[in-house]
């Protein structure tokens, strides 16, 4: 009913008069209630068909809890998409320190190019990946030995398991009926592309049996990784790499056996060399006009990913995806909405400019504008506040009073400079104001301590009012995020070469507030 929320604001003054209805309306228009998201489980099931994903290893040995959660979930999805599309190359946009990139390459054997605009991040990613790779090889070597021992033990108790497995596969070969477009569990009708990817997923029974056995072997090996990873942060940074093979006497071997062993050794060395070059951190600033082939010389059919791509980078990732035929899929989780550029924010007529918002033609035709304050609100984390992680009221109060000071004392209403995280480095309100003024390049000598404290005392009684105002912003945050995310989804829906696109909730919003991924797959004809 259109009149349900009509009494939230006063018709004449436009002021908020019903907080309860305001909260209900905000909830109603959030992504969780609108029903436009595709469940992650449905996407994974549709992508995999009868194949089960490899058992994931714990990443919290070398990442913090938040990053571990994000990388674990997203890498599993990326691997499923890559397997479904039959591609091995991944481009990680805004890769930062390379957490996702290195894990995709080592755990899933994908060839990953991590591109970041910061040379510091790229160098850090190189060094981190070098150390991680040393540790990875060391405990994988021991893991294989343990795996052989465990298999022998299992073989005594379950001798016919592989026969049962092969029989099950032969009874259910992959075909058009079991591809992505026939999954009954998928809740959104267009989850399956009309011209789909059935050729990629289809194979003969014998080939599928072989793939299943290989997958099972990889799954068994990955189970051991959890045990071996426990020693990761005990190993020194300069841990010596495990040698490729132990030497043995070949004097008694016949010429044929020697040739076979030599070939095996060459293959092992080639495999190791290839393995060590699966992840390439690169430094480059990505825009909507970026030619990836200029950055990646061996660009092939691939997919693009982005884990918390900042501001316009998330929008540009989608634009590059739709424009480049080599890119078959995209999985992008954006963040930092406050840094988005808006076409209609300053009412500037720049038709040639590429803006972060809006992207879809519908909102462009409407001339839609959010504004910086609304985009700042979209960055707030309602779910964290709901579980007791309250807003930093005192730092918000400091910032609000500071703005009054610089407007009244210095006559400044707008500045390109930022205060940043000055609050955490300040011992008092006076210290905070003086450090902030220096960052803003304003002369603090004409402002005595007593004057600063007068402002503090003048507005101190309004701190509760400020907290209530910010709580209303938190409640409204999901609605603004919906607008930005649906704009990106609608942009993809407008493209002729997209087979399926959707929004998927990837992460626990308490651990990772920016938890929604925009995912899209190209049509089969684009392959």
UniProtKB/TrEMBL annotation:
The keyword DNA repair is annotated on this UniProt entry: no
Residue stretches making up the Methyltransferase domain: 66-343
GO molecular function: methyltransferase activity
GO biological process assignments: methylation
InterPro entries membership: Methyltranfer_dom, METTL25, SAM-dependent_MTases_sf
Top-rank taxon, per record: Eukaryota
Alphabetically ordered keywords of this record: Methyltransferase, Transferase
Regions crossing the membrane: none
Keyword Methyltransferase: yes
Protein's name in the database: Methyltransferase-like protein 25
Species this chain originates from: Aptenodytes patagonicus (King penguin)
């Amino acid at each position: 009913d259109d009149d349900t929320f009509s009494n939230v604001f006063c018709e004449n003054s436009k002021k908020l008069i019903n907080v309860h209805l305001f909260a209900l309306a905000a909830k109603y228009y959030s992504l969780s209630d609108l029903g436009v998201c595709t469940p992650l489980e449905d996407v994974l099931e549709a992508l995999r068909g009868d194949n089960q994903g490899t058992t994931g290893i714990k990443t919290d040995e070398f990442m913090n809890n938040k990053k571990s959660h994000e990388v674990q979930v997203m890498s599993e999805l990326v691997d499923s998409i890559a397997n479904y599309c039959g591609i091995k190359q991944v481009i990680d946009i805004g890769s930062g320190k390379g957490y996702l990139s290195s894990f995709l390459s080592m755990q899933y054997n994908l060839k990953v190019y991590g591109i970041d605009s910061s040379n510091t991040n790229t160098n850090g990613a190189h060094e981190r990946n070098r150390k991680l790779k040393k540790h990875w090889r060391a405990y994988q070597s021991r893991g294989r030995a343990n795996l052989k021992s465990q298999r022998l033990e299992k073989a005594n108790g379950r001798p016919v398991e592989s026969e049962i497995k092969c029989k099950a596969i032969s009874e259910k070969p992959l075909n058009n009926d079991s591809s992505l477009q026939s999954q009954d569990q998928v809740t959104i009708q267009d989850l399956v592309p009309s011209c789909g990817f059935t050729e990629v997923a289809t194979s003969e029974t014998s080939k599928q049996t072989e793939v299943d056995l290989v997958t099972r072997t990889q799954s068994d090996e990955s189970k051991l990784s959890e045990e071996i990873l426990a020693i990761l942060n005990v190993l020194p940074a300069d841990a010596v790499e495990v040698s490729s093979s132990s030497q043995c006497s070949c004097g008694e071997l016949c010429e044929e056996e020697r040739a076979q062993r030599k070939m095996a050794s060459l293959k092992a060395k080639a495999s190791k060399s290839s393995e060590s070059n699966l992840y390439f951190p690169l430094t480059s600033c990505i825009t909507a006009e970026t030619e990836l082939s200029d950055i990646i010389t061996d660009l092939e059919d691939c997919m693009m990913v982005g884990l918390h791509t900042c501001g316009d980078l998330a929008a540009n990732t989608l634009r590059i995806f739709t424009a480049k035929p080599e890119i078959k899929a995209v999985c992008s989780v954006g963040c930092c909405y406050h840094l988005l550029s808006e076409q209609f924010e300053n009412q500037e007529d720049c038709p040639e400019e590429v803006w972060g918002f809006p992207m879809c033609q519908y909102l462009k035709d409407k001339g839609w504008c959010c504004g910086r304050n609304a985009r700042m609100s979209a960055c707030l984390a309602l779910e964290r506040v709901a579980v007791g992680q309250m807003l930093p009221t005192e730092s918000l109060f400091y910032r609000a009073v500071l703005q009054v000071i610089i407007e009244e004392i210095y006559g400044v209403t707008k500045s390109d400079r930022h205060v940043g995280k000055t609050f955490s480095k300040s011992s008092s309100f006076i210290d905070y104001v003086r450090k902030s003024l220096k960052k803003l390049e304003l002369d603090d000598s004409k402002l005595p301590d007593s004057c600063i404290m007068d402002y503090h005392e003048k507005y101190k009684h309004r701190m509760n009012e400020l907290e209530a105002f910010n709580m209303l912003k938190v409640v409204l945050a999901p609605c603004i995020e919906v607008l930005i995310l649906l704009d990106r989804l609608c942009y993809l829906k407008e493209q002729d070469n997209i087979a399926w696109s959707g929004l998927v909730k990837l992460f626990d919003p308490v651990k990772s507030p920016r938890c929604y991924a925009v995912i899209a797959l190209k049509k089969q004809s684009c392959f």
